[in-house]
Amino acid sequence: MRKTTFIISVVMLLMVGFACQQSNKAAAKLSTMESIKQLEDSLFNANTNALDKKKANELSRLYEQWAVENPADEKASDYLLKAADVAMNLNNPRRSIGLFDQILTNYPQSKNASTALFLKAFVYDDQMHDFENAGKFYNEFLEKYPESPFANDAHASLLNLGKTPEELVKEFEKNNANK
Fold first, then answer.
1. Which 3 state secondary structure label does DSSP give 122?
2. Greatest Cα pair distance in the chain
3. Is 134 helix (H, G, I), strand (E, B) or coil?
4. pTM of the shown model
5. Homologous superfamily of 73-177 in CATH?
6. pLDDT single digits (tens) 101-123
Protein backbone atom coordinates (compact mmCIF):
# COMPACT_ATOMS: atom_id res chain seq x y z
CA MET A 1 0.00 0.00 0.00
CA ARG A 2 2.78 2.44 0.91
CA LYS A 3 4.62 1.58 -2.29
CA THR A 4 1.48 2.27 -4.37
CA THR A 5 0.86 5.54 -2.54
CA PHE A 6 4.49 6.52 -3.11
CA ILE A 7 4.31 5.73 -6.84
CA ILE A 8 1.05 7.64 -7.20
CA SER A 9 2.59 10.60 -5.35
CA VAL A 10 5.64 10.60 -7.61
CA VAL A 11 3.47 10.39 -10.74
CA MET A 12 1.30 13.25 -9.47
CA LEU A 13 4.37 15.38 -8.73
CA LEU A 14 5.73 14.72 -12.21
CA MET A 15 2.40 15.66 -13.77
CA VAL A 16 2.17 18.86 -11.74
CA GLY A 17 5.78 19.70 -12.59
CA PHE A 18 5.15 19.11 -16.30
CA ALA A 19 2.00 21.24 -16.21
CA CYS A 20 3.89 24.06 -14.48
CA GLN A 21 6.68 23.83 -17.03
CA GLN A 22 4.18 24.08 -19.89
CA SER A 23 2.49 27.00 -18.15
CA ASN A 24 5.86 28.75 -17.74
CA LYS A 25 6.66 28.21 -21.42
CA ALA A 26 3.29 29.66 -22.43
CA ALA A 27 3.82 32.63 -20.11
CA ALA A 28 7.32 33.23 -21.50
CA LYS A 29 5.99 33.06 -25.06
CA LEU A 30 3.26 35.53 -24.20
CA SER A 31 5.72 37.78 -22.40
CA THR A 32 8.06 37.81 -25.41
CA MET A 33 5.13 38.51 -27.72
CA GLU A 34 3.93 41.33 -25.46
CA SER A 35 7.44 42.81 -25.40
CA ILE A 36 7.64 42.58 -29.20
CA LYS A 37 4.30 44.33 -29.59
CA GLN A 38 5.28 47.11 -27.17
CA LEU A 39 8.59 47.70 -28.96
CA GLU A 40 6.95 47.65 -32.39
CA ASP A 41 4.48 50.27 -31.18
CA SER A 42 7.17 52.51 -29.69
CA LEU A 43 10.01 52.08 -32.20
CA PHE A 44 9.79 55.66 -33.43
CA ASN A 45 10.00 58.74 -31.26
CA ALA A 46 6.58 60.39 -31.51
CA ASN A 47 8.05 63.91 -31.38
CA THR A 48 10.86 63.54 -33.91
CA ASN A 49 9.64 60.49 -35.83
CA ALA A 50 13.23 59.19 -35.50
CA LEU A 51 14.04 55.54 -35.04
CA ASP A 52 15.10 54.59 -31.52
CA LYS A 53 18.15 52.44 -32.28
CA LYS A 54 18.32 50.94 -28.81
CA LYS A 55 14.70 49.78 -29.08
CA ALA A 56 15.30 48.54 -32.62
CA ASN A 57 18.24 46.40 -31.47
CA GLU A 58 16.14 45.01 -28.62
CA LEU A 59 13.28 44.29 -31.02
CA SER A 60 15.62 42.41 -33.35
CA ARG A 61 16.92 40.38 -30.39
CA LEU A 62 13.36 39.57 -29.26
CA TYR A 63 12.32 38.47 -32.76
CA GLU A 64 15.27 36.09 -32.83
CA GLN A 65 14.64 34.90 -29.28
CA TRP A 66 11.02 34.13 -30.12
CA ALA A 67 12.04 32.18 -33.23
CA VAL A 68 14.68 30.19 -31.33
CA GLU A 69 12.22 29.38 -28.53
CA ASN A 70 9.48 28.40 -31.02
CA PRO A 71 11.31 26.79 -33.94
CA ALA A 72 8.33 24.71 -35.09
CA ASP A 73 5.95 27.68 -35.22
CA GLU A 74 5.16 28.85 -38.75
CA LYS A 75 6.01 32.43 -37.70
CA ALA A 76 9.59 31.53 -36.75
CA SER A 77 11.07 32.28 -40.18
CA ASP A 78 8.95 35.48 -40.37
CA TYR A 79 10.42 36.69 -37.09
CA LEU A 80 13.96 35.79 -38.15
CA LEU A 81 13.42 37.77 -41.35
CA LYS A 82 12.11 40.72 -39.32
CA ALA A 83 15.13 40.48 -37.01
CA ALA A 84 17.45 40.45 -40.02
CA ASP A 85 15.63 43.37 -41.62
CA VAL A 86 16.04 45.47 -38.48
CA ALA A 87 19.73 44.54 -38.24
CA MET A 88 20.23 45.35 -41.92
CA ASN A 89 18.57 48.74 -41.53
CA LEU A 90 20.74 49.46 -38.48
CA ASN A 91 23.75 48.75 -40.70
CA ASN A 92 24.75 45.64 -38.79
CA PRO A 93 25.63 43.39 -41.74
CA ARG A 94 27.23 40.52 -39.84
CA ARG A 95 24.16 40.09 -37.64
CA SER A 96 21.79 40.31 -40.58
CA ILE A 97 23.76 37.71 -42.55
CA GLY A 98 23.77 35.41 -39.52
CA LEU A 99 19.99 35.73 -39.28
CA PHE A 100 19.54 35.14 -43.02
CA ASP A 101 21.69 32.02 -42.62
CA GLN A 102 19.41 30.78 -39.82
CA ILE A 103 16.46 31.03 -42.20
CA LEU A 104 18.34 29.32 -45.02
CA THR A 105 19.56 26.52 -42.75
CA ASN A 106 16.52 25.94 -40.55
CA TYR A 107 13.69 26.90 -42.93
CA PRO A 108 14.95 26.24 -46.48
CA GLN A 109 11.42 25.50 -47.74
CA SER A 110 9.81 28.56 -46.13
CA LYS A 111 8.36 31.43 -48.12
CA ASN A 112 11.18 33.57 -46.67
CA ALA A 113 14.09 31.51 -47.97
CA SER A 114 14.29 33.26 -51.36
CA THR A 115 14.09 36.72 -49.76
CA ALA A 116 16.74 35.75 -47.21
CA LEU A 117 19.13 34.58 -49.93
CA PHE A 118 18.59 37.67 -52.07
CA LEU A 119 19.06 40.01 -49.10
CA LYS A 120 22.13 38.10 -47.99
CA ALA A 121 23.69 38.81 -51.40
CA PHE A 122 22.53 42.43 -51.18
CA VAL A 123 24.13 42.92 -47.75
CA TYR A 124 27.44 41.50 -49.01
CA ASP A 125 27.17 43.84 -52.00
CA ASP A 126 25.82 47.07 -50.51
CA GLN A 127 26.99 47.09 -46.89
CA MET A 128 30.11 44.95 -46.83
CA HIS A 129 31.37 45.66 -50.37
CA ASP A 130 32.38 42.00 -50.56
CA PHE A 131 31.64 41.64 -54.26
CA GLU A 132 32.97 38.09 -54.52
CA ASN A 133 30.47 36.75 -51.98
CA ALA A 134 27.74 39.04 -53.31
CA GLY A 135 28.18 37.59 -56.80
CA LYS A 136 28.26 34.05 -55.44
CA PHE A 137 24.96 34.53 -53.57
CA TYR A 138 23.23 36.46 -56.37
CA ASN A 139 24.10 33.57 -58.73
CA GLU A 140 22.90 31.00 -56.19
CA PHE A 141 19.68 32.99 -55.83
CA LEU A 142 19.12 33.01 -59.60
CA GLU A 143 19.77 29.27 -59.83
CA LYS A 144 17.32 28.45 -57.05
CA TYR A 145 14.67 31.11 -57.67
CA PRO A 146 14.72 32.16 -61.34
CA GLU A 147 11.01 33.07 -61.24
CA SER A 148 11.27 35.24 -58.12
CA PRO A 149 10.10 38.85 -58.27
CA PHE A 150 13.69 39.72 -57.25
CA ALA A 151 15.26 37.88 -60.22
CA ASN A 152 15.54 41.05 -62.36
CA ASP A 153 17.10 42.87 -59.41
CA ALA A 154 19.62 40.07 -58.96
CA HIS A 155 20.54 40.20 -62.68
CA ALA A 156 20.96 43.98 -62.53
CA SER A 157 23.01 43.70 -59.35
CA LEU A 158 25.33 41.20 -61.00
CA LEU A 159 25.80 43.49 -64.02
CA ASN A 160 26.63 46.44 -61.76
CA LEU A 161 28.58 44.60 -59.09
CA GLY A 162 31.46 46.67 -57.76
CA LYS A 163 30.70 49.73 -59.86
CA THR A 164 30.80 53.13 -58.21
CA PRO A 165 27.78 55.45 -58.40
CA GLU A 166 29.77 57.64 -60.78
CA GLU A 167 30.39 54.70 -63.13
CA LEU A 168 26.70 53.83 -63.06
CA VAL A 169 25.71 57.41 -63.93
CA LYS A 170 28.18 57.47 -66.85
CA GLU A 171 26.79 54.17 -68.18
CA PHE A 172 23.24 55.45 -67.82
CA GLU A 173 24.08 58.66 -69.67
CA LYS A 174 25.91 56.74 -72.39
CA ASN A 175 22.96 54.36 -72.88
CA ASN A 176 20.50 57.27 -73.06
CA ALA A 177 22.70 59.11 -75.56
CA ASN A 178 22.74 56.03 -77.82
CA LYS A 179 18.93 55.82 -77.97
1. helix
2. 99
3. helix
4. 0.77
5. Tetratricopeptide repeat domain (1.25.40.10)
6. 999 999 999 999 999 999 999 99
